[in-house]
Structures are given as C-alpha cells and as structure tokens.
Amino acid sequence: GFSATLTFAKDNPPVIDTTNIPQDTWQRGNPSLPIGLTDDVALSELKYAIKGQDCNYTATPADPCIETDWKSMLSASTGSPLSLSGTSLSQNVKISSTDWGVLGQGTNTIYLRAKDDAGNCTGCDGSRSLVIKKDTVAPTTNISTIKRTYPDTATVTGDWLKAGVYEITLNDQEDTSAGAGNYSGIDTSFRPA
Fold first, then answer.
1. CA Rg, the chain, in Å?
2. 8 Å CB contact between 156 and 147
3. 165-176 residues labelled b (16+ CB within 10 A) or e (exposed)
4. Most CB contacts within 10 A, which of 41, 111, 127, 160?
5. What is the pLDDT of residues 33-63, one digit of tens each?
6. Eight-state DSSP code of residue 51
7. What angle do CA 46, 52, 56 make, to 5 degrees?
8. Mean pLDDT across 135-151
9. At residue 123, does pLDDT exceed 80?
C-alpha cells in the first residue's frame, strides 16, 4: 500500500509595527514612515487607504474600504511600490505624492493593511491605522503698532525711528486649520547694539 505523511503549519496574520513612527509631529512634507512587518511564512503586501477620502471605518462600518480603495505603500527611498517577500520588512515608506497633496490640513487617519501569501490579513477591518498631522500653510504676522517707550512715549506714524526703546505689537495671523497654533521660533529679544 501507499502511505503519506502530511505536515501542516499554522500561518498567523502578519504583524504591523508602527511604534517608531513619530506621534504628535506636524508634517510640512510627505513624511517618511518607519514601518516594520513580520510574518510566519511570507509577506505579500502592505497597502494604505485614507479615512474620508477612500473609506471610513466606524463601530459599524458605514463605508468600509473596498479592494479598489487600497493603494500600495511606496518605498521612501525610491518612490516605487513596495515589493515584499520573505518573513520581515523594516523600511521607511510613504503614501503617494498625489494622496499627500489632497490630504487636508490638520489630522488625517491612514488605514494600513498587510497580507501574507496565505491570504491572512492584518488591518483589513480598519483596526490598524496611523495619524499624519499635515500643516503646509505658513503663519503670517502684521505689525499693528510701534510705540516708543523711552526716552519719551509716542506712537510711531512714519517710517523713521529715533534712538530709544520701542514696544512693537504683532498680530499673529496663524492659519487656524492646523499646526501648533502659536509661533515657535520668533526671537523677541533683539536689541540694537
């Protein structure tokens, strides 16, 4: 007779590691995201979808991602779609330049999914995501008043300033849709030599 021995190995879904992605950091350009993937047998894909643009997951998905919503994550160094093989990946990745361009100012949720060769999926249900905080609008400032405080007090109305100490009032016209909400690098300690 004939005898055969079959061995089966359980292949768990891939693991997505986003712990090295900086949190609460405002981005003014398409960020390079350090991602790690591992799988028991073989990885096959890492894709992303943008909440609100491609799909939305909620407690009861009203508009869940469909297959065409998912896009290949790009290599940060080459800009090409990732080519996955083997059991692990540790690489910096990006979303496409087109998707970066249409992301709104402020906080954006990016869904992630990873699949292996057996079809196991992590994140297909919207359970894996990361947040990208976009701020590409520079703040503006107006000088509303210049007032001399020493040796006499006078509001300056012309273009010329006399020697003395001045108080300058700035109006912060920071964009209100994103960013830190305040200036972070103005040097107000300038004094003439």
1. 26
2. yes
3. eeeeeeeeebee
4. 111
5. 999 999 988 999 999 999 988 888 775 555 6
6. B
7. 70
8. 76
9. yes
Question: Which of 69-75's residues contact partners 24+ apart within 8 Å by CB, and which partners?
Answer: 70/113, 71/47, 71/95, 71/96, 71/99, 72/45, 72/46, 72/47, 73/35, 73/46, 73/47, 73/48, 73/112
| Distance separating alpha carbons of residues 163 and 52, to the nearest angstrom | 57
3-class secondary structure, 97: helix
> What global pTM score does this model have?
0.73
Which two tokens mark 89? Answer: 């990946």
Tokens matching residue 157: 């109305």
Helix segments in 66-109, DSSP class H: 97-102
In total, the chain counts a number of residues equal to 193
